[in-house]
Amino acid sequence: MVYATADGSALARLRIGMVGGGRNAFIGAVHRFAMRLDDKIALVAGALSSDPENAAASAADLGLAPERSYADYRAMARAEAARPDGIEAVVIVTPNHLHAPIATAFLEAGIDVICDKPLSTTLDEARALVELTAARRRKLLVTLNNTGYAMVRQAREMVASGELGRIVAVHAAYVQDWLTQPIDADGQKQAEWRTDPARAGQSAVLADIGVHAFNLACFVSGQQAETVAADLFTAVPGRRLDDNANVLVRWTGGARGTILASQTSPGHYNDLSVRIYGEKAGLEWRGTEPEALRFSPFGEDSRTIIRGGHGSGAAARRVSRMPAAHPEGYIEAFANLYRDAAEIIQAHRAGAAIDPALSALVPDVTDGARGVQFVAAAVESNAAGGAWTSARFG
Amino acid sequence: MVYATADGSALARLRIGMVGGGRNAFIGAVHRFAMRLDDKIALVAGALSSDPENAAASAADLGLAPERSYADYRAMARAEAARPDGIEAVVIVTPNHLHAPIATAFLEAGIDVICDKPLSTTLDEARALVELTAARRRKLLVTLNNTGYAMVRQAREMVASGELGRIVAVHAAYVQDWLTQPIDADGQKQAEWRTDPARAGQSAVLADIGVHAFNLACFVSGQQAETVAADLFTAVPGRRLDDNANVLVRWTGGARGTILASQTSPGHYNDLSVRIYGEKAGLEWRGTEPEALRFSPFGEDSRTIIRGGHGSGAAARRVSRMPAAHPEGYIEAFANLYRDAAEIIQAHRAGAAIDPALSALVPDVTDGARGVQFVAAAVESNAAGGAWTSARFG
Amino acid sequence: MVYATADGSALARLRIGMVGGGRNAFIGAVHRFAMRLDDKIALVAGALSSDPENAAASAADLGLAPERSYADYRAMARAEAARPDGIEAVVIVTPNHLHAPIATAFLEAGIDVICDKPLSTTLDEARALVELTAARRRKLLVTLNNTGYAMVRQAREMVASGELGRIVAVHAAYVQDWLTQPIDADGQKQAEWRTDPARAGQSAVLADIGVHAFNLACFVSGQQAETVAADLFTAVPGRRLDDNANVLVRWTGGARGTILASQTSPGHYNDLSVRIYGEKAGLEWRGTEPEALRFSPFGEDSRTIIRGGHGSGAAARRVSRMPAAHPEGYIEAFANLYRDAAEIIQAHRAGAAIDPALSALVPDVTDGARGVQFVAAAVESNAAGGAWTSARFG
Amino acid sequence: MVYATADGSALARLRIGMVGGGRNAFIGAVHRFAMRLDDKIALVAGALSSDPENAAASAADLGLAPERSYADYRAMARAEAARPDGIEAVVIVTPNHLHAPIATAFLEAGIDVICDKPLSTTLDEARALVELTAARRRKLLVTLNNTGYAMVRQAREMVASGELGRIVAVHAAYVQDWLTQPIDADGQKQAEWRTDPARAGQSAVLADIGVHAFNLACFVSGQQAETVAADLFTAVPGRRLDDNANVLVRWTGGARGTILASQTSPGHYNDLSVRIYGEKAGLEWRGTEPEALRFSPFGEDSRTIIRGGHGSGAAARRVSRMPAAHPEGYIEAFANLYRDAAEIIQAHRAGAAIDPALSALVPDVTDGARGVQFVAAAVESNAAGGAWTSARFG
User: Which branch of life, at top level (chains A, B, C, D) (predicted)?
Assistant: First the structure.
């Protein structure tokens, strides 16, 4: 279906397929809400489950043509690559350990990739994906989705424009309560695979939520981790992987800070936050109140910048659908990322130049690899008694 | 397109048309975001603007088939009623004064109606619509959209289940700042028609936002206004209609309270709130933090119930897409209303029974008329020096 | 005891006596905390209870000389007036109905008065006190104590300096929960007299807390009530007086607004708030977070001014003891009022000129009478079916 | 002056002297506000400044008898020890490096000591004070004053009573902005000595505020630091000592956590906070809103316990002067500590038994020494590249 865009240009919706995300899955549905919101993406194929029955039923739920519902992602990559109306990009929403092999299969088939975080469970896989993406000149984007929030983008814009001056400190945290009790031992599906080293990787808490806090800190501050010193621990006896991480970070630009992650903190459901301090001002953002950005120029009282309000800048306005205080939330942020990802992928496939300012807004394979590197460095530091360990990727 | 629903049943997407909502309109786009989210509705026709050029361009933007883009709502009602694949329902998102005539045209054509608030600008029109809807055995639903918020529904459920005991006080308010300056006199489009008696009705502030506060109070408390005593005023010299309203309310169940509305209050963008007190507990909800419901059982400290969290009840869970603290917002609430509206209309058209519990969740023509009655009563009371005036509809 | 002040001048502590405030009383102890904080006041005499035994024991608790503990306020006024070291001022902290007779006795004895609110239970008494104070050229100050908060004073200063422009709306509320259940019927002492018409006056809720909200609105806005339209009601069956009041107010300067008071609202302990909107900016203050003032210049995002912080003005700095975010609270605000009251009374007794800017900070007999007038007007309006009723004093 | 207490017993006010705290000093005045509030303490002597002129003038300000104003603390210790009405305790409010020598002088003179934090600038001094206090059987109490907050005590009580279950994580932070710019280089008095190694000790930020966060964490959790790994840094070029500290902590009971301290974070004036998570519940308290304690039992929504409110326990009620939502603040908390300190010292001097539950509420010389040990361990860890370093005292 081709239709005119608001600015008059004709634009086809991006044709997308999904691997994972069948019935009973969690994050796949989130991706679909996000894809739908702006009507720029058409979900037309899927290998929605490794269980053939679930795959077929899930495809029917979503109105996929039966012949484009696949039981196997390799078959899907082959078949879709061969179709004239085949998918242009695939979304990977499986458990962590499958991200790399699936991404590899589609990249090799010439299909661009949108992959959930973490990019992979091992650093070797991450490095290989960076190389493969470059070699094949394809796009691999990672749904480190908090970068889609309007006020996160405003924060990034304010830092980049120098409103904070030299950055001195960068802290981020992601705190949850859902693993406070040993539900993984009791067979709860989401908990079970996330705490299994074979599917989650070397660290459960960092792979699952720590990478979000880390990426958020990087995205807003414009800095990367130089070295880390980590204390990882398991609060719940018998759990196979860590569920808490306290990590000291020295950032590339000279700032210091912390990345904290916990899945056993009653009182916090999904409490993601970032605080950045410069010599001229401080900024705070919290995912539980995503519409607000607390901005504190030194020497003045703090102000609360509201998305869509008087203090919203260009970066926030670009992704605002609603007026101020008609709250946008998690799905809208995710949809912002999808809209930008679709634009990048379409431009890339059309051979058009991509605005670097746009590219910088959507985490790519290198950003994903940095997250994997961060996890690996923290695990290594923890094993070495908290020694400062390099976290630079590349 | 027919596809299987999650529970295995086959269900067509509801075919819908839209009147109003072309380029540069505000609320039409909001409705479209809401329709898309759950993929249960197909927008297939429209008379998107009274300006033919805008109508056509807007239809193209949305991928409507050119032959189903109409320059005139009457032509649309006729043509769609005649098509075998014609729309099942129309969404009306025009200025207030057109709601009643457009709704009338579609109801008479046998097409169900989803109408933005207020239902009409006069009480006579509202009464006529109630009668017409009944006479034609059609559905006319009103997008008093705050009823779609998960925690508003939870609040209603808690009141209904007796957790607050006998209700003693009900207060609601809707406070904005956007008309603090005379932008209507300067020709700002949204401000201009909303302060024009010919298009907005007898009261600007009550028709535009007061009805939201009023409906929210009714919906949560389960009560209606018995009498009102109102002080309406215009803060900005020269404005043609009021921009502030302070209204005392005596509710049917014996409770008392206030409905406040202001469009000239710096510091508030869209600050909708409701507070309900019973002999056993109090409840507060605020649209700027829609995911939280403050619940205060007398004799205990207040707790903050978070959508999706440990204290979420059945009514909230039914409309939760995301886990707790992955915030849902205005669009999601609107989408909840659309999903329920679609279910009601489809069942009605199929001749199936509609669960009264579901019907009660979606404001209908009577609820819309109650809002118009509330505005009329407040205007009358104000004119009569604040005398207590009946606000009962029917 | 005479000692040097910080600026080198010699200053005696103000000699004060107290009527009421014995063991088991509530507000007397608050006054004593406030008097002590700055060490500018010496409590040297008292008629602390009408029960002689309680009076003596209470005096001993406080280290009063036994001969200056009186069983009767009239005896105290006579005796203290006759002593060369007699009290310079008396503090009245009895139930409401005794305020006027006690104040009268001390004024007639040439002793200045600091009286708790409300000034009196009848308007006639209030008028008589205004006249008597003027006739005797004495000071009668009223501990409408919220005027002592640093950020309330900053708010007043900002309004007075024009930062809000012309004032358009003024709202205040005082919401409590403590009378949610019929504890007055069960004999709870504080509840019992406050709901007794003979001791509390015509309205319980307005005399007890409504006058605080009203005074706060007046103090900050610099306006007085012109007319009111009131809905008073009793939430708890069988209670002898009202426990809820919703009052519409038209202010002298043309602004409109509301004064709400409730003692039956679970979730609110002592929730006093004021919101003021001008054509240029809005201000909000809340007694539960007294260190913060929310300031919203139109066209900018809201900022939170913190006492002692970068945005604190002269009025707040003058009464700040602690740096920002070392919170000051209710006692400190009360102490600010006492310090200013003592300075006014000492200057007055010394025949010195009193800075009008200082006088304006401490509610006097006229301010107290305005509160009584407000209560009387609301009661009258309520009885007259909510008719607009003059609330101007004098 | 001897007077009867509320319970009928006769009790003299504790006679106290002060070293430091003259004109232009900061914390001395805070101590005096705290002493006055409950009228249980008489300030009767002082060596208020090392500058004799300032000392005399400051003493006159406070109404001290001239002969009890000393220019030298050693002279004061000697003279007061010799007077029959000499001071029973001395309060030390000088720069850090003088704490130990002054405390030593008074302890040796048989006078009990109330010392501001940190106990000393070196660990050797701290150890010597612990020994001296024991040898002389005297009391040395440390005004780690956050332990005086009602809701901090409630938090401690809840942890101790097992409401959180086994403690898993303990985090505390103290964040300020006042050293964001190089005001120490510009000669600001408070900044100048606090960043001078000779007067502040090895770490500025930890000695000044880090010890508060650390003590708060210990007091509430009932745990001590086992080992620490620290990253200390100086945000402002040229500053002589650190102004930021990020410290990982492993606690004695097996919990992990962090202590963060910063003096260069715009947006935070005095932002002290503690978060404690157990296997059954979480608790959060923040010094900027000291009246509230957020309590989150796992499996329920969070509730906000308000001092004086329905959920206040015995520990909070014991130190509540005001009803709920008449906020108490920093001075009241400090006064709570003073009232308990006075009771401990008076009982000790009278040879009476001291309730261990009371003793545990007031930090003593060992608690002070633990803070010094914490600072020393963090400095050592930082110097050793963040190696885990023992922080156990004794």
Answer: Bacteria
